[in-house]
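Entry:
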Amino acid sequence: RRHLVTVGARVVEFDHPTVRSAASHGAEGAHRRRAHRLVGGAMVDPAASVQHLGLGVAGPDAQLAERVAGASDRLIELGAPVEAARALQLAARLSPDQSAAAVCLRKAAELLVDTVEAPAIGPLLDRADLATTSVVEQIRRAALRIRVGARSDDVADAADELVALATQVQQEDPGLAARLLLEALVPQVRSGRAADVLRTARRAQAVAGAADDELLTLRAEVALGGALVAARDPAGGPMLDRFRELLAREGTIQCGAFLAEVVAPILGFLHRSADAKELLDHLESDLRDRDAIP
Protein backbone atom coordinates (compact mmCIF):
# COMPACT_ATOMS: atom_id res chain seq x y z
CA ARG A 1 0.00 0.00 0.00
CA ARG A 2 2.94 2.32 0.74
CA HIS A 3 4.90 0.93 -2.21
CA LEU A 4 7.66 -0.40 0.02
CA VAL A 5 7.48 -3.81 -1.66
CA THR A 6 6.54 -4.77 -5.22
CA VAL A 7 5.64 -8.42 -5.78
CA GLY A 8 5.93 -9.63 -9.38
CA ALA A 9 5.49 -12.99 -11.05
CA ARG A 10 9.19 -13.91 -10.71
CA VAL A 11 10.71 -11.22 -8.48
CA VAL A 12 10.15 -9.37 -5.22
CA GLU A 13 11.58 -5.83 -5.17
CA PHE A 14 12.05 -3.69 -2.06
CA ASP A 15 11.98 0.09 -2.20
CA HIS A 16 15.24 0.31 -0.17
CA PRO A 17 17.81 -2.18 1.21
CA THR A 18 16.89 -1.20 4.77
CA VAL A 19 13.31 -2.29 4.11
CA ARG A 20 14.54 -5.66 2.90
CA SER A 21 16.76 -5.99 5.97
CA ALA A 22 13.92 -5.05 8.31
CA ALA A 23 11.64 -7.63 6.69
CA SER A 24 14.25 -10.33 7.07
CA HIS A 25 15.24 -9.61 10.67
CA GLY A 26 11.68 -8.99 11.75
CA ALA A 27 10.48 -12.41 10.62
CA GLU A 28 10.35 -15.42 12.91
CA GLY A 29 13.32 -17.77 12.59
CA ALA A 30 11.34 -20.62 11.03
CA HIS A 31 9.78 -18.30 8.44
CA ARG A 32 13.12 -16.72 7.60
CA ARG A 33 14.78 -20.12 7.15
CA ARG A 34 11.93 -21.33 4.92
CA ALA A 35 12.32 -18.22 2.76
CA HIS A 36 16.05 -18.84 2.41
CA ARG A 37 15.41 -22.47 1.39
CA LEU A 38 12.90 -21.40 -1.26
CA VAL A 39 15.20 -18.71 -2.63
CA GLY A 40 18.21 -21.02 -2.59
CA GLY A 41 16.31 -23.72 -4.43
CA ALA A 42 15.20 -21.29 -7.13
CA MET A 43 18.54 -19.59 -7.81
CA VAL A 44 20.68 -20.56 -10.80
CA ASP A 45 23.95 -19.11 -9.48
CA PRO A 46 25.45 -21.96 -7.38
CA ALA A 47 27.37 -19.61 -5.07
CA ALA A 48 24.27 -17.58 -4.18
CA SER A 49 22.17 -20.72 -3.95
CA VAL A 50 24.57 -22.28 -1.46
CA GLN A 51 24.53 -19.15 0.69
CA HIS A 52 20.73 -19.16 0.97
CA LEU A 53 20.48 -22.92 1.50
CA GLY A 54 22.95 -22.69 4.37
CA LEU A 55 20.92 -19.94 6.00
CA GLY A 56 17.82 -22.08 5.58
CA VAL A 57 18.65 -24.64 8.28
CA ALA A 58 19.15 -24.39 12.01
CA GLY A 59 21.32 -27.46 12.52
CA PRO A 60 22.96 -30.46 10.80
CA ASP A 61 21.24 -31.72 7.66
CA ALA A 62 22.86 -34.61 5.79
CA GLN A 63 20.75 -34.21 2.67
CA LEU A 64 21.47 -30.51 2.39
CA ALA A 65 25.17 -31.08 3.12
CA GLU A 66 25.33 -33.40 0.12
CA ARG A 67 23.51 -30.86 -2.04
CA VAL A 68 25.88 -28.07 -1.02
CA ALA A 69 28.90 -30.27 -1.70
CA GLY A 70 27.47 -30.89 -5.17
CA ALA A 71 27.22 -27.14 -5.71
CA SER A 72 30.94 -26.89 -4.93
CA ASP A 73 31.63 -29.19 -7.89
CA ARG A 74 29.78 -26.81 -10.19
CA LEU A 75 31.73 -23.86 -8.81
CA ILE A 76 35.00 -25.68 -9.52
CA GLU A 77 33.85 -26.23 -13.10
CA LEU A 78 33.14 -22.49 -13.33
CA GLY A 79 36.70 -21.71 -12.22
CA ALA A 80 35.74 -20.34 -8.80
CA PRO A 81 37.90 -22.26 -6.28
CA VAL A 82 37.44 -19.86 -3.37
CA GLU A 83 33.64 -19.96 -3.67
CA ALA A 84 33.80 -23.76 -4.01
CA ALA A 85 35.90 -23.93 -0.85
CA ARG A 86 33.33 -21.83 1.02
CA ALA A 87 30.59 -24.19 -0.13
CA LEU A 88 32.58 -27.17 1.17
CA GLN A 89 33.05 -25.44 4.52
CA LEU A 90 29.29 -24.94 4.69
CA ALA A 91 28.79 -28.62 3.78
CA ALA A 92 31.12 -29.53 6.66
CA ARG A 93 29.05 -27.44 9.07
CA LEU A 94 25.83 -29.03 7.85
CA SER A 95 27.08 -32.62 7.92
CA PRO A 96 26.09 -34.69 10.98
CA ASP A 97 28.95 -37.09 10.19
CA GLN A 98 32.22 -35.71 11.56
CA SER A 99 34.35 -37.90 9.28
CA ALA A 100 32.50 -36.62 6.21
CA ALA A 101 32.85 -33.07 7.52
CA ALA A 102 36.61 -33.56 7.85
CA VAL A 103 36.81 -34.67 4.21
CA CYS A 104 34.93 -31.52 3.15
CA LEU A 105 37.33 -29.34 5.15
CA ARG A 106 40.37 -31.03 3.58
CA LYS A 107 38.96 -30.61 0.08
CA ALA A 108 38.24 -26.96 0.84
CA ALA A 109 41.84 -26.50 1.98
CA GLU A 110 43.13 -28.09 -1.24
CA LEU A 111 41.14 -25.63 -3.32
CA LEU A 112 42.71 -22.66 -1.53
CA VAL A 113 46.27 -23.48 -2.57
CA ASP A 114 47.55 -20.66 -4.84
CA THR A 115 44.66 -18.34 -3.90
CA VAL A 116 44.50 -15.23 -1.72
CA GLU A 117 42.73 -17.39 0.88
CA ALA A 118 45.75 -19.71 1.29
CA PRO A 119 46.36 -18.61 4.94
CA ALA A 120 43.09 -20.38 5.84
CA ILE A 121 44.52 -23.79 4.83
CA GLY A 122 46.20 -24.47 8.19
CA PRO A 123 43.13 -23.69 10.33
CA LEU A 124 40.91 -25.80 8.05
CA LEU A 125 43.23 -28.79 8.38
CA ASP A 126 43.43 -28.26 12.14
CA ARG A 127 39.64 -28.47 12.33
CA ALA A 128 39.67 -31.62 10.20
CA ASP A 129 42.26 -33.18 12.52
CA LEU A 130 39.73 -33.07 15.36
CA ALA A 131 37.60 -35.78 13.69
CA THR A 132 38.34 -39.49 13.68
CA THR A 133 39.14 -40.37 10.08
CA SER A 134 40.79 -43.16 8.09
CA VAL A 135 44.56 -43.46 7.72
CA VAL A 136 44.19 -42.58 4.04
CA GLU A 137 42.40 -39.33 4.89
CA GLN A 138 45.04 -38.48 7.50
CA ILE A 139 47.74 -38.99 4.86
CA ARG A 140 45.88 -36.72 2.42
CA ARG A 141 45.94 -33.95 5.01
CA ALA A 142 49.60 -34.58 5.84
CA ALA A 143 50.49 -34.42 2.13
CA LEU A 144 48.69 -31.09 1.77
CA ARG A 145 50.59 -29.67 4.74
CA ILE A 146 53.85 -30.79 3.12
CA ARG A 147 52.89 -29.32 -0.23
CA VAL A 148 52.08 -25.94 1.33
CA GLY A 149 55.15 -26.00 3.59
CA ALA A 150 57.47 -26.80 0.69
CA ARG A 151 56.94 -23.28 -0.61
CA SER A 152 59.01 -21.92 2.26
CA ASP A 153 60.77 -24.90 3.88
CA ASP A 154 63.44 -27.32 2.62
CA VAL A 155 62.12 -28.77 -0.65
CA ALA A 156 64.38 -31.82 -0.33
CA ASP A 157 62.71 -32.72 2.97
CA ALA A 158 59.30 -32.25 1.35
CA ALA A 159 60.16 -34.73 -1.40
CA ASP A 160 61.35 -37.33 1.10
CA GLU A 161 58.24 -36.87 3.25
CA LEU A 162 55.92 -37.32 0.25
CA VAL A 163 57.73 -40.49 -0.81
CA ALA A 164 57.47 -41.79 2.78
CA LEU A 165 53.71 -41.12 2.80
CA ALA A 166 53.38 -42.94 -0.53
CA THR A 167 55.11 -45.97 0.95
CA GLN A 168 52.82 -45.89 3.97
CA VAL A 169 49.61 -45.87 1.91
CA GLN A 170 50.66 -47.92 -1.13
CA GLN A 171 49.02 -51.18 -0.11
CA GLU A 172 45.71 -49.63 0.94
CA ASP A 173 45.40 -47.01 -1.81
CA PRO A 174 47.88 -47.38 -4.71
CA GLY A 175 46.19 -44.54 -6.59
CA LEU A 176 46.90 -42.06 -3.78
CA ALA A 177 50.44 -43.45 -3.48
CA ALA A 178 51.08 -42.83 -7.18
CA ARG A 179 49.75 -39.26 -6.92
CA LEU A 180 52.01 -38.59 -3.94
CA LEU A 181 55.00 -39.89 -5.89
CA LEU A 182 54.15 -37.63 -8.81
CA GLU A 183 53.88 -34.70 -6.38
CA ALA A 184 57.32 -35.61 -4.98
CA LEU A 185 58.85 -35.07 -8.41
CA VAL A 186 58.43 -31.29 -8.16
CA PRO A 187 60.56 -30.74 -5.01
CA GLN A 188 63.05 -33.33 -6.30
CA VAL A 189 63.47 -31.32 -9.49
CA ARG A 190 63.78 -28.06 -7.56
CA SER A 191 66.57 -29.54 -5.43
CA GLY A 192 68.36 -30.91 -8.51
CA ARG A 193 68.11 -34.61 -7.59
CA ALA A 194 68.13 -36.06 -11.10
CA ALA A 195 68.67 -39.67 -10.06
CA ASP A 196 65.83 -39.47 -7.53
CA VAL A 197 63.52 -37.97 -10.17
CA LEU A 198 64.03 -40.92 -12.49
CA ARG A 199 63.71 -43.44 -9.66
CA THR A 200 60.52 -41.85 -8.33
CA ALA A 201 59.01 -41.55 -11.83
CA ARG A 202 59.62 -45.26 -12.47
CA ARG A 203 58.03 -46.16 -9.16
CA ALA A 204 55.04 -43.87 -9.80
CA GLN A 205 54.38 -45.64 -13.10
CA ALA A 206 54.58 -49.08 -11.48
CA VAL A 207 52.31 -48.11 -8.57
CA ALA A 208 49.80 -46.37 -10.86
CA GLY A 209 49.50 -49.58 -12.85
CA ALA A 210 48.10 -51.29 -9.75
CA ALA A 211 45.49 -48.58 -9.17
CA ASP A 212 43.16 -49.49 -12.06
CA ASP A 213 43.07 -45.83 -13.15
CA GLU A 214 43.87 -45.32 -16.82
CA LEU A 215 44.31 -41.55 -16.62
CA LEU A 216 46.60 -41.81 -13.61
CA THR A 217 48.66 -44.47 -15.38
CA LEU A 218 48.90 -42.23 -18.43
CA ARG A 219 50.02 -39.31 -16.27
CA ALA A 220 52.72 -41.45 -14.69
CA GLU A 221 53.89 -42.64 -18.10
CA VAL A 222 54.16 -39.07 -19.41
CA ALA A 223 56.13 -38.04 -16.30
CA LEU A 224 58.46 -41.01 -16.70
CA GLY A 225 58.88 -40.11 -20.35
CA GLY A 226 60.01 -36.64 -19.33
CA ALA A 227 62.45 -38.06 -16.78
CA LEU A 228 63.90 -40.47 -19.37
CA VAL A 229 64.30 -37.68 -21.93
CA ALA A 230 66.03 -35.61 -19.25
CA ALA A 231 68.39 -38.56 -18.70
CA ARG A 232 69.06 -38.71 -22.47
CA ASP A 233 67.27 -42.04 -22.82
CA PRO A 234 65.56 -42.23 -26.25
CA ALA A 235 62.90 -44.55 -24.82
CA GLY A 236 61.34 -41.51 -23.14
CA GLY A 237 60.32 -39.75 -26.35
CA PRO A 238 57.30 -41.91 -27.28
CA MET A 239 56.14 -41.94 -23.65
CA LEU A 240 56.37 -38.17 -23.36
CA ASP A 241 54.52 -37.73 -26.66
CA ARG A 242 51.46 -39.32 -25.07
CA PHE A 243 50.76 -35.97 -23.40
CA ARG A 244 48.49 -35.25 -26.39
CA GLU A 245 46.40 -38.30 -25.52
CA LEU A 246 46.30 -37.13 -21.92
CA LEU A 247 45.09 -33.70 -23.00
CA ALA A 248 42.37 -35.22 -25.15
CA ARG A 249 41.11 -37.50 -22.39
CA GLU A 250 41.56 -35.46 -19.24
CA GLY A 251 40.85 -31.93 -20.39
CA THR A 252 43.06 -28.92 -20.85
CA ILE A 253 42.81 -27.38 -17.39
CA GLN A 254 43.74 -30.40 -15.27
CA CYS A 255 46.24 -31.80 -17.73
CA GLY A 256 47.75 -28.41 -18.51
CA ALA A 257 48.48 -27.85 -14.84
CA PHE A 258 50.11 -31.29 -14.53
CA LEU A 259 52.30 -30.76 -17.58
CA ALA A 260 53.27 -27.24 -16.54
CA GLU A 261 53.96 -28.09 -12.89
CA VAL A 262 55.56 -31.54 -13.22
CA VAL A 263 56.71 -32.49 -16.72
CA ALA A 264 58.01 -29.14 -17.99
CA PRO A 265 60.23 -28.53 -14.91
CA ILE A 266 61.75 -32.01 -15.30
CA LEU A 267 62.82 -31.15 -18.82
CA GLY A 268 63.73 -27.54 -18.13
CA PHE A 269 65.76 -27.99 -14.94
CA LEU A 270 67.44 -31.32 -15.53
CA HIS A 271 68.20 -31.29 -19.24
CA ARG A 272 68.97 -27.86 -20.64
CA SER A 273 69.82 -29.05 -24.14
CA ALA A 274 68.63 -27.99 -27.58
CA ASP A 275 66.43 -31.10 -27.77
CA ALA A 276 64.81 -30.32 -24.42
CA LYS A 277 64.20 -26.71 -25.47
CA GLU A 278 62.56 -27.89 -28.67
CA LEU A 279 60.31 -30.27 -26.72
CA LEU A 280 59.38 -27.55 -24.23
CA ASP A 281 58.62 -25.07 -26.99
CA HIS A 282 56.44 -27.65 -28.73
CA LEU A 283 54.68 -28.51 -25.47
CA GLU A 284 54.05 -24.83 -24.67
CA SER A 285 52.73 -24.14 -28.16
CA ASP A 286 50.38 -27.11 -28.01
CA LEU A 287 49.06 -26.11 -24.57
CA ARG A 288 48.49 -22.49 -25.67
CA ASP A 289 46.61 -23.65 -28.75
CA ARG A 290 44.30 -25.60 -26.46
CA ASP A 291 43.97 -22.68 -23.99
CA ALA A 292 45.40 -24.93 -21.28
CA ILE A 293 47.81 -22.20 -20.12
CA PRO A 294 47.60 -18.38 -20.40
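The CA atoms of residues 223 and 263 lie 6 Å apart.
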